[in-house]
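To: structure desk
From: M.T.
Subject: fold request, one chain
Message: Could you run this one when you get a chance? Sequence is below, nothing fancy, just the single chain.
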Amino acid sequence: MAKALITWGGWDGHEPDKVAAIFAAMLAEAGMAPTVTDSLDCFDDAEGLRAYDLIVPVWTMSKITKEQAVKVSDAVARGTGIAGCHGGMCDAFRDQTLWQFMTGANWVAHPGGDGVKYTVQITDKSHELVAGIADFEVSTEQYYLHVDPANHVLATTRFPTVTWFHSPNGPIEMPVAWTRKWGEGRVYYNALGHKANVIESGPAHEMLRRGLIWAAKGKPLADPARYAALAIDGKHF
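Reply: Done. Structure tokens follow.
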């Protein structure tokens, strides 16, 4: 049975306990065994992290050490998937650039705050993670992210929706959901999830359900030889 680690905490405004419970239910329903913890001590155990098929971080504006970031990075590079949403993954540890590189972005703003009405546009309609899901509207925070151009984008939203200092730059398409690789590991992110009710049902829920399961399925496909070829000595961050 595939195993998942869900670790939650950080800023209470993102309801990390409720979001973690939604993720745990998704994974249990898919036949996986989720371990749920409200501590970051799990990031100290390099061998333990590598034993999981999936890591799901649900932390916002928190802190981990460089050593913890390296251990998570190495577990993912060896094949453990990582997946998450909103600030719980891409605004988790602002001072750890390795984390930002691995996850593919970092949050910088949500113009208009909560309750902004906008459209999520599915851009890769043939991809298994969004196939059959139509464009949909949400009323929540609209995340402006600094995004890695290497991400495989699945869905976007258009800025500006709310007029602010970024508006003179003109309209742009901001990624909402994407996949990427980190070594042998699969990475999935979805910017929705400011409150638990945003992802507890509907298309956002289905996108995340598929994304978490997809990320976990990469572990059996990981090739130690390919990992070893990438894990060269040197300073990278």
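Reply (cont.): The mean pLDDT is 97. Let me know if you need anything else for the meeting.
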